[in-house]
Amino acid sequence: MFVLPVKSGRYFRMIQKRRSVAIVLGLVSSLFFALSFILNRMMSLSGGSWLWSASLRFLLMLPLLWVLVALRGGIRPLLRIMKADPVPWLLWGTVGFGIFYAPLTFAAKYGPSWLVAGTWQITIVAGMLVAPLLERRGNRQRIPGRAMLFSLVILAGVMVMQISQAASLTVPQLLAGTLPVLVAAFAYPVGNRMMMKVAGNRVDAQQRTLGMTLGSTPFWIVTAAAGFVVAGPPSGSLVFQSFLVAVTSGVIATTLFFKATDSARDDHQLLASVEATQAGEVLFALLGELILLDGKPPDGLACTGIALVIGGMLLHSKAGAKT
């Protein structure tokens, strides 16, 4: 008679631990993702073409991921799954990686890394908005009310940050630094969530990252060819910085984030909270901009926006861990 409560207590502690681990993984991934915003800004300021900085990240990621997956014997199972149904891997790999990352590198030309990272947090709202549309009609879940409320706090912070920068940028610059990020903010959760549905439990996080990289490779070859035509071959420093992005953001951050989202795939509240941990990129990008690029610190209005973004992230994480 007393066994069931003990087992139930252990079960719920296990679930609580799983949710806490998912959120911690999301936060750590946001640190490594922030490095890509900083390095993209560095490459842009040094005159490097955004076409090269975007394509080189994924072209350099490919052999690194291949070796990591091969060491665990995961290449053949992945290729067998992809060969059986290649179109979704090509489509959602291109959407989730190509249509996501190319606009972000383009936007790095027009604003500091913390501003791009802040605007990127719209992806948290985008992920919840597209989630019901990606489910079959009978399986659709309602958008969690609290999660949407906390995401709107983050969205308000993004708008405040944009207002703080409006005075120092022309309208075309502001649009060029904002609209591409909006495209990326929807492309990433759509590609990630659809790829989770296609792959299911047949692949792990590293295999899924490699599979999406393979699927997006044609897009990156075309982008690299355009970079060669427009700007010529990449410089040695551009290749090295792109390699750093490939390791930190492409391999480490993406794998950690996919592990977190995989563990939350059946819990929309937790999945929204994991996606909300990416708001940590704003703080990490701001610190990196100030330390590495000697950037101009944000003014009072921008700091208010950053505080709203981080506050919304903390509310999300707390709600996700205790759901």
UniProtKB/TrEMBL annotation:
<keyword id="KW-0472">Membrane</keyword>
<keyword id="KW-1133">Transmembrane helix</keyword>
<feature type="transmembrane region" description="Helical">
    <location>
        <begin position="21"/>
        <end position="39"/>
    </location>
</feature>
<dbReference type="InterPro" id="IPR032713">
    <property type="entry name" value="EmrE"/>
</dbReference>
<feature type="transmembrane region" description="Helical">
    <location>
        <begin position="146"/>
        <end position="164"/>
    </location>
</feature>
<feature type="transmembrane region" description="Helical">
    <location>
        <begin position="51"/>
        <end position="75"/>
    </location>
</feature>
<feature type="transmembrane region" description="Helical">
    <location>
        <begin position="210"/>
        <end position="232"/>
    </location>
</feature>
<dbReference type="Pfam" id="PF13536">
    <property type="entry name" value="EmrE"/>
</dbReference>
<feature type="transmembrane region" description="Helical">
    <location>
        <begin position="170"/>
        <end position="190"/>
    </location>
</feature>
<feature type="transmembrane region" description="Helical">
    <location>
        <begin position="238"/>
        <end position="258"/>
    </location>
</feature>
<feature type="transmembrane region" description="Helical">
    <location>
        <begin position="87"/>
        <end position="108"/>
    </location>
</feature>
<keyword id="KW-0812">Transmembrane</keyword>
<feature type="transmembrane region" description="Helical">
    <location>
        <begin position="114"/>
        <end position="134"/>
    </location>
</feature>
<protein>
    <submittedName>
        <fullName>Putative multidrug resistance efflux transporter</fullName>
    </submittedName>
</protein>
